[in-house]
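About this split. The held-out portion is used to measure sequence recovery: a designer receives only the structure tokens and must propose an amino acid at every position. Recovery is the fraction of positions where the proposal matches the reference. Here is one held-out target exactly as it appears in the evaluation file.
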């Protein structure tokens, strides 16, 4: 079966988000009253798997091996549909 999986990757608390800080400063310079900007990566992955649990397991493994850096990033895996 084919599953669509959404992976959300964000920096852990305390890790400096240089891109977010740059966007925040730029928005303030343009006159927007922005207090904070954080960047998040979202991947939507289509994968063949035997079950929803199998799809989640495969993508979780891919996050650990490639997509996320567990030292500075948190990630979540959500199976969207079957």
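Reference sequence for scoring:
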């Amino acid at each position: 079966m084919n599953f669509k999986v959404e992976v959300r990757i964000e920096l852990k608390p305390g890790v400096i988000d240089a891109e977010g800080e740059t966007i925040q400063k730029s928005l303030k310079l343009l006159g927007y009253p922005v207090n904070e900007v954080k960047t998040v990566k979202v991947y939507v992955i289509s994968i063949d798997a035997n079950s929803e649990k199998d799809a989640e397991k495969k993508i979780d493994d891919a996050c650990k091996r490639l997509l996320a850096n567990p030292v500075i990033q948190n990630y979540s895996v959500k199976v969207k549909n079957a």
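Annotator remark: The two ends are 7 Å apart (CA to CA).
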